[in-house]
Amino acid sequence: MSDTTGPPPSGGAGPSSTRKEPPPSGGAGPLATRKIRRRGAHPLARFLVRRVLLAVLMAWGITLVTFVLTNLVPGDPVAANLGQRALGDPAIVAQWRAEHGLDQPLWRQYLLHLQGLLQGDLGTSQQSHRPVSQDLAEFVPATLELAGAAILVSLVLGVAFGVVAALRRDRLSDHALRVLSLIGISVPTFWLALMAFYLFFYRLQLTPGSGRVDAALGLAPAVTGMQTVDALLAGRWDIFSSAVAHLVTPALVLALYTIGLLTRFTRSAVLEVLGQDYVRAARAKGLPGRVVLFRYVLRSALVPIITVAGLAFGSLLSGTVLVEAIFAWPGIGQYAYKSATTLDLPAVMGVGLVVGVVYLVINLVVDVLYGVIDPRVRLH
Amino acid sequence: MTLDISGLKVSIGGKEILGGVDLRLAAGRVHGLAGESGSGKTMTGLAVLGLLPHGARVSGSIRLGERDLLTLPPKELNRVRGGEVAMVFQDPATSLHPMLTIGKQLTEHMRHHLRLGRAEAKARAVELLGKVRIPGPEEAYGRFPHQFSGGMRQRVAIAIALACSPKVLIADEPTTALDVTVQAGVLRLLRGLCDELGLAVLLVTHDLGVMSAVADEVSVMKDGLVVESGPRGQVLREPAHAYTRSLLDSLPDAELR
Ligand SMILES: Nc1ncnc2c1ncn2[C@@H]1O[C@H](COP(=O)(O)OP(=O)(O)OP(=O)(O)O)[C@@H](O)[C@H]1O
Ligand SMILES: [Mg+2]
């Protein structure tokens, strides 16, 4: 059992570090229990603190990596940002470099960058001439709204479809869902986005075209920057329904791949758990079918499902770049594309940081869920 | 209450697994069921609870008192499961849910079948843990299966099976996965509970040593049929069937005395 300094973080940070096999028991007698009590903290609380500290450490790592990668990019930001005339004048070039700190050694640039970050200063975008933080505050909520909706939809539908397919194995609904999930996994997102746009908007005129709300309605007063939420907060049902109508198609397009993936993984995870002894034992106890499903089957199946979901949400984020472009969704994907093509380094670093932190948060949530679901993860 | 299995036939995918099994369990008696691997012992136990694998076809009858379990509607069968007929499985490492506390797994069916409140169920669960001799039952209540040894887990599984005061207990090789040193303890416990609570026990095992230690009646299965059945002394001392004799011959002599 662990000593008084506490156990080391269980090797690595990723989902891969989770144990599937129960660790050998022994030594966990009443003595060990008393020891934990004396130390005071709830095991789940200690588990959470450890995970959050690790996440902070990794956030620092992300700043380092984005900084180094951004500075490794072959390409001269000076050439990308100054006109032909100005480039010809060494004095102007030197002044521009000094203004943007490019004349300092790299490590000093990084320290300055880090110092700025701690004060919420991400530098100034060379394109928009606004603070990068201000740009991000404008574009990030739109992407969060789109990706968040897609994640929600894919979780609900993917898990539900997978469970239904598993419970109705080899029947018609199972075959239908498997075909659907195969389509979802294999159709490229950009093609799907174009087809959906063409079909639902251009031909059938079922959905509003691009953007986030009808221009005629105006925007809800900004609180979170997410139109659906802000409209609800302001009690503007007209804006809310318009925002939802705009959101549905791009979110579904973005979600389809993840729905397919989750359907597939949920189906096999549930089937595997259904064959476990403890499920048969639960049935032998005469528990109602729904209790067996939710308490016994889904709880275990959730561990592999969460692993896949965490990974899938990462790739869902990269899908936003395409979907935002096709549906003219003013999100961070568009911003990232624009800043990358103009070598707007502060903006690129800002985007990198945001994306890195989002991945980190997803990973943290996945790790914490492991601990919440599986006592073997948090008790050792 | 008695459990009367007669003419039980089971086939899966056209293959006959049981070819007409007859077994009778009586209150307060341990009925030992022996037989080589694949002879259909587990399938017999599962058939009683209606837990046969998908696509299994069953015929014959399994009478619990007045009712035939094979024709019972699903709702009533669910009341019998855990409530009147309970089962202990072979491997305690896999038959408890790893993510639910012992307490939860001990009380959920009590609350469902007996409609007990949380506190009542807990009190009874702690009492049961004491009865199967788990040290520190209060503390054990909040622990997870992986925090117990194999023998202790099997005791927990037995406590779970006994929680709703069933009349019939089916124990499918309850000691096979356990260390020899703890096997005797678990068996003695089963025997004691049978006498104390008047349980009818079906003890599946392919260990004739186990059989001679605790069973009142012994049946021997081979290829989906019961080939020999009778009081322990008779079957083990004067086996009528050649197969039983060969099983006995393969044992070290000392074990049967
Ligand atoms: N899910 C299944 N589908 C089809 N046949 C099965 C299935 N499970 C078991 N069988 C077959 O049923 C027969 C009886 O199996 P059973 O598990 O009852 O044997 P057993 O006497 O319990 O053996 P053991 O001592 O190994 O546990 C075997 O021939 C086995 O191959
Ligand atoms: Mg068996």
Automatic annotation (TrEMBL), chain B:
Compartments, as annotated in UniProt: Cell membrane
Keywords (A to Z) from UniProt: ATP-binding, Cell membrane, Membrane, Nucleotide-binding, Transport
Bilayer topology: Peripheral membrane protein
Keyword RNA-binding part of the UniProt annotation: no
Gene Ontology MF annotations: ATP binding; ATP hydrolysis activity
Family in the record: Belongs to the ABC transporter superfamily.
Protein name: ABC transporter ATP-binding protein
Record organism: Nonomuraea terrae
Lineage: Bacteria, Bacillati, Actinomycetota, Actinomycetes, Streptosporangiales
